[in-house]
Amino acid sequence: MIDDPSNQDDLADEWAAALEQQAEPVPLESFDQSNDISAEERRKLDTILDIPVTISMEVGRSQLSIRNLLQLNQGSVVELDRVAGEPLDVMVNGTLIAHGEVVVVNDKFGIRLTDVISQTERIKKLK
Asked: Residue 35: what pLDDT?
């Protein structure tokens, strides 16, 4: 939904304020390499480690008519199907793998995973 232009600045300010309240710096954990796997397993794992994947975070969705889409310009506000504070979807190659929340790490936005979708649930969704 595209709001009245007189309300766009107010909504943009509210959205920015909501993001600032949600985002907080977090310390990062260090991950240790585990030597619990055999050389054969390591070789098999190494064959897939360099395959590129696309990871994306989805804040929300909206449907617009082409008429409203063509009316969008700088400063336009598009209403999404989620409320502030609701978890973001973390997608890998278009498949939902987790939910998360926005955090700030070294002055950059990041995602803290709050719920990872189990492998069996992901396989069920493929069928």
From this structure: 59
